[in-house]
Design a protein that fits this description.
416 residues, 12 helices, single chain, nine-stranded mixed sheet, four-stranded antiparallel sheet
């Protein structure tokens, strides 16, 4: 199998122009995007993407979860396709690149192959997965999860947003509910390009991240109960301060994560204190601890130490405490062959690179269950993402897309 020549590169200006044109749909209030899943803005972005794909000679498939599949034929009608893509939906205050770079970078591969009249044995299918963000309809990676058999389709359809609208009804309303059975497609491989959403590549001056693993995740909701009482007239020895118990548990969470450095992380992002009044000692605190690691044994250890240590803290303070596992998924190890294709592409093209563990969930994490999968990452400024100030450079985008293209067409096999 011949590797693509190192002079084979995407059209960086065309890719950048496509990203900027897509960003005009569902503009945010501060320079980013608000193109949430199965909204009118999502429908408009999908229509533009379909137009571009059809202009590039692709046929469009649409399944019952709204996943879009733009196919460029290969020379062997029996060869399984190589899939490549990401998502077009955004956070309510999202950036222009999260997900979009992966979809339009994949489309740019097709455009470049067309320009150069390059044929591949395997078909190449550019994919837009529905509702990766999960911000309007939880959980994240909803449609790729149904595709991979992680979620039941009827359960997914019944997910409700803050206004009580269901995912299934909204998908139908915007006109992007297809007839194709979800998960019926078989893949030769799947590749996803994404911004890092972290600071490592930029800090180390690397052009490309070769993603070897995806972190596993554990969410534990902790409820600490004490006694509401007056902050001014309750003597210190007689207080049952649920807020203080929470603070001590959060310090424990930090210690636990540090004990498994450098890859494990832990914090609480969702915190509620009751009654949340200036002159009332909290009688209850409810917070969710987010632990992540690429090692499932480490996650199990962190969960165990949280429960044991948190109970000891509360017992000593005379507080009640309950723990409930409210979410999570196991760590992901991406396919060694696909990862090698990404690494080889970076080396062949002369881009600086390093292995990387993805701290965020991506559609590739679910697709890895049903097909050989790997990811490519490019830096983003200050590691900032899920924020309208999210930013990348044209050079970073083109380097990531170049590596993606080489990995994809090496896997799809160029026909001489």
């Amino acid at each position: 199998m011949a590797a693509p020549g190192q002079n084979l590169r995407i059209n960086a200006d065309r890719l950048w122009d496509a990203i900027m044109e897509m960003a005009r749909i569902g503009p945010g209030v501060a320079g980013g995007n608000n193109r949430q899943t199965v909204t009118d803005e999502d429908a408009e972005g999908r229509a533009l993407f379909q137009k571009w794909c059809e202009e590039a000679g692709c046929s469009m498939g649409l399944d019952q979860m709204g996943n879009m599949f733009a196919r460029r034929e290969g020379t062997d009608p029996d060869a399984l396709p190589v899939y490549v893509g990401s998502h077009l939906d955004t956070q309510p205050t999202g950036g222009k690149y999260d997900g979009v770079l992966g979809v339009l970078g994949a489309l740019e591969i097709i455009r470049t192959l067309n320009d150069l009249n390059i044929k591949t044995k395997h078909p190449i299918v550019v994919t837009n997965w529905t509702n990766e963000e999960g911000t309007r309809f939880a959980p994240a990676m909803l449609a790729s999860g149904v595709f991979a058999g992680v979620h039941d389709q009827d359960w997914a359809y019944a997910r409700e947003d803050a206004e009580g609208k269901t995912f299934g009804d909204e998908l139908e309303r915007i006109g992007w509910k297809g007839d194709e059975k979800v998960g019926a497609r078989k893949m030769h491989a799947f590749f996803e390009l994404h911004i890092e959403q972290g600071p490592i590549l930029e800090a180390e001056g690397k052009d490309v991240g070769v993603v070897t693993n995806g972190q596993g995740l554990s969410w534990t909701q902790v409820t600490v109960t004490g006694k509401e009482s007056h902050t001014g007239s309750t003597p210190m020895p007689m207080r049952k301060n649920a807020g203080l118990g929470m603070a001590r548990i959060l310090d424990l969470v930090d210690q636990i994560a540090w004990s498994h450095k450098p890859d494990a992380v832990g914090a609480a992002g969702q915190i509620n204190v009751y009654p949340n009044s200036r002159n009332v000692i909290p009688g209850k605190a409810v917070f969710t601890v987010d632990f992540r690691s690429p090692d499932i044994d480490v996650i199990a250890d962190m969960e165990k130490r949280l429960r044991e240590g948190g109970r000891k803290i509360c017992d000593e303070m005379g507080l009640g405490v309950e723990f409930e596992k409210v979410g999570g998924f196991d760590p992901v190890k991406f396919d060694e062959g696909c990862v090698a294709a990404v690494r080889n592409a970076a080396e062949r093209l002369g881009y600086s690179h390093r292995d990387l563990i993805s701290g965020a969930g991506h559609d590739a994490c679910w697709i890895n269950r049903v097909a050989p999968t790997a990811m490519v990452m490019c830096p983003c400024v200050d590691g900032l993402s899920h924020n309208e100030a999210e930013e990348i450079s044209k050079e970073w985008a083109s380097a990531g897309a170049d590596v993606l293209m080489h990995a994809v067409i090496e896997t799809a096999r160029i026909v001489e």
